[in-house]
Amino acid sequence: MGSGPHFEALRARDARPWETMVVMRTRLTITKTTTALATSALLVLGLAACGGSGDDASTDSETTPAEETSTSAEEETTPSEEPAEEESGDTEASGDFCTAYDALLDAQTTLSSIDTSDPAAAVTQFETFTASLEAAEAPAEISTDWDNVTGVFRQLTDTLETAVDDPANADISSITSLMTDETFQTSAQNVAVYGTQNC
């Protein structure tokens, strides 16, 4: 009793709802973990930005006395108006970078409010956010660090997308390693300090 092809088919049918629940639970867990990792990474940026702001303020206070000797320097540079075009180009690049940098700081609030019970919607938000970072052209002096930061968020977003499509093949451990890696931490801090001082 309780054997035969018909019985096996019934068992397989009854098992599917449980398998579906396990897959859904895995997706939710990965979405929560990924969102938490992203928020933690952005916290590093936020803290570094606060530190950078302080450094910038101290720099201003140190250079204030030098204003007394700036008159002669201004007289020498006033006739030369040619560098203005070059500065304009730098300003455009900085503006593009600063817009993305502001989005990066705002994302700490945006990503932390993601509804992790809806993995598909979370993927959409992560993709939009990551694409905006990748579209920005960072100034040469910070481009390597910027690429490191955006590269990690790209891998995080791709991992989350994989988790929604195929939870069994989502490699969260690799993302955890990337975000806790010293290279990422250093790049995030450098980006934050640069953004605070130049945006």
UniProtKB/TrEMBL annotation:
Segments carrying the region annotation (Disordered) are 52-95
Output compositional bias ranges, type Acidic residues: 73-90
Q: Where is the composition biased (Low complexity)?
A: 60-72
Can you say what this protein is called? Lipoprotein
- Whose protein is this, by species? Cellulosimicrobium cellulans
